[in-house]
């Protein structure tokens, strides 16, 4: 492995470790006290942390180790698991970010317009159903990737885990459906929900701080995922492998950054988070 490849692998390993630390921290901070029940925003944060940890532990970590080993050595079975987890966590993370954005939009903007009345999303049973639906959607898009996952050998030695659809038309159909339903529509919802959640000034400062963290996360999300999507689409057309690598790095950066932004928003970044 040359020096440039070592540096790339080291940076990705660092991002992976930061993501594991941050998402575990966010999950621990979101656990309720023994004397209190689980709140809606805590359930949303726990779900997001779980989605990101699937990426960090089952996707980024094995992929980083394979980079250091200069080739995929986990076998064909885990290649299928790898592709399934990659699609599952990616879609679930996007939908979790959408639900968090909508929750805070209703909490700050919708509640103000209704004179402080309770909002629909501040209902644990409703949120549980929405989260369960999000996981079902994520699984629906991830299962095909598991069946089409395969190992490709490069230079008669280096193996790589990748998607291998039966035809170009099948791949294009899947990509168009996935990008539209699991990326474009949720991104549009996030843009709408975070357009003005920090405008109202009559809300408690803790809620405004949390809402601003949601806006920051949405901004990072949009930059990372729009760049990721554009590179992913272009790489499918031009078949440039380096673009696939760049896209994967950008996607990995999102799951490593956002837990710290949320921890800052709920005032638990600079103090012990054990309740």
Automatic annotation (TrEMBL):
GO cellular component, one term: membrane
Membrane topology label: Multi-pass membrane protein
Keywords for this protein: G-protein coupled receptor, Membrane, Receptor, Transducer, Transmembrane, Transmembrane helix
Location relative to the cell: Membrane
Residue span(s) of domain G-protein coupled receptors family 1 profile: 23-262
Membrane-crossing residue ranges in chain numbering: 12-31, 43-61, 81-105, 126-148, 176-193, 214-234, 246-266
Keyword match Manganese: no
Protein name: Olfactory receptor class A related 5
Organism of derivation: Scleropages formosus
């Amino acid at each position: 492995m040359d020096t440039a490849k070592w540096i790339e692998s080291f940076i990705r390993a660092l991002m992976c470790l930061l993501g594991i630390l941050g998402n575990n921290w966010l999950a621990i901070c979101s656990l309720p006290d023994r004397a209190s029940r689980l709140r809606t925003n805590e359930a949303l944060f726990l779900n997001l942390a779980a989605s990101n940890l699937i990426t960090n532990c089952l996707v980024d970590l094995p992929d980083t180790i394979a980079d250091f080993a200069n080739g995929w050595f986990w076998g064909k079975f885990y290649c299928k698991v790898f592709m399934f987890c990659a699609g599952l966590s990616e879609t679930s993370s996007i939908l979790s970010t959408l639900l968090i954005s909508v929750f805070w939009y209703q909490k700050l903007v919708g509640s103000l317009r209704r004179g402080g009345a309770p909002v629909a999303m501040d209902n644990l049973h409703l949120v549980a159903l929405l989260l369960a639906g999000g996981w079902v959607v994520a699984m629906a898009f991830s299962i095909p990737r598991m069946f089409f996952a395969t190992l490709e050998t490069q230079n008669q030695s280096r193996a790589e885990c990748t998607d291998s659809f039966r035809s170009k038309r099948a791949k294009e159909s899947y990509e168009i459906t996935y990008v539209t339903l699991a990326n474009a529509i949720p991104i549009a919802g996030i843009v709408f929900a975070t357009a003005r959640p920090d405008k109202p000034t009559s809300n408690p400062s803790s809620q405004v701080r949390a809402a601003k963290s949601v806006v920051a996360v949405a901004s990072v999300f949009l930059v990372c995922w729009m760049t990721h999507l554009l590179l992913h689409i272009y790489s499918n057309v031009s078949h440039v492998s380096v673009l696939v690598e760049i896209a994967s790095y950008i996607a990995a950066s999102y799951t490593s950054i956002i837990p710290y932004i949320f921890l800052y928003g709920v005032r638990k970044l600079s103090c012990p988070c054990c309740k």
